[in-house]
Amino acid sequence: MKHVIGTVAVSAALVFAPMAQAEEPIRIAFVDPLSGPLASSGELGLRHYQFAVDEINRNGGVDGGRMLEVVPFDSKASPQETVLLLRKLADEGFHYVSQGNGSSVSAAIIEAVEKNNSRNPDQTMVFLNYSAVDPALTNEKCSWWHFRFDTEVNQKTAEMTDFIADNKDLKRIYLINQDYSFGHAVGDAARSMLGEKRPDIEIVADEYHPLMKIKDFAPYIAKIKASGAQAVLTGNFGADLTLLVKAASDAGLDVDWYTYYSGLLGAVTAMGDAGVNKVYELSEWHENIDNPELAAFAGAYKEEFGDDWRYMRVKFMFGMLAQALDEVGDDPAKVAAALSGMSYDTPLGQAVMQPENHQIIMPQFVTVLSRDVPNDLEGTGIGRKTIREFPAQSAVVPTTCQMKRPG
């Protein structure tokens, strides 16, 4: 039977009532948009959180039998709203806060958590970031209390440009990204890294467009077509990616697309055959990786919720949190120390939380959309196929973080 999680927490403590009565559950505040245009992304993340936590609870919980509980809060994708929420969470005794949609929101959480922890050491908070990838968050804005469980823009682009550099036939590439911090980070990294690895590739344009405001990408496609580009690299997501690729197909533009988010909710359905054998993506997992353990996990999620599992990093994040809680107990300061530098064995290889900036490194996969796969996305008959695998160490990039450790 399918079950839907809205903006009300489904408490694991209700399922495990006898154990929960003995000791309160360990609560994780899920702070992401649950209303407005990004609500579908926030709700998808919430379903992932609840499913990952339910698995841990079914296996006995953490720290000698305590349950985990996910409690959702609507950030409204607003840094200002989120800062107000953080004050409420501190007052209500939350020690663990997690978020992923919007690097500007993440930056606000980092600042608020730093202030809280310096002023209220008895109410220390730890920030678990599952998806906000602005490099600044683990560089100049890094914090001892912030841990990122997704690879950031520079890591993603380092690996994607390694893949691109191997295409000896590629001579002209077009960069198009959304006009905000993330999009500019992608453009800056791609320019720099392609210049180092393949100076013979001409970057014919480095273009930025308004975020989520373009309904017709035909004028942009006309410019790409006129440029003679053979490929496009973009960090676009959501409608800004699907409308771009569909407009290219409608115009007969025959290029390869190098992306980071073409496997997200609704993207494959929207692109359809326009993306087959043309759209490449870099991610930490996909539905056609031959790993029975993760395939069973993703299949159980789909059976319960009716949609596809997307973020395997969420499972790994909670696995690392559980490992820390088992090692040191429910003391947020000790949990942060345990997470810093932690090595964690995933079914796909070892993940490491780098101690110098609290940025995860883990294996990554370049895929292409294909109909020649056993598992599809969203019932389209189209799924992702591995083209190349990168080991965790490939994601090690320089950092400017000067971590201020407590004490």
Automatic annotation (TrEMBL):
InterPro entries: BCAA_transport, Leu-bd, Peripla_BP_I. Gene3D superfamilies: 3.40.50.2300. Residues 25-368 form the Leucine-binding protein domain. Residues 1-22 form the signal peptide. One of its GO terms (biological process) is amino acid transport. The keyword Transport applies. CDD domains: PBP1_SBP-like. This is Branched-chain amino acid transport system substrate-binding protein.
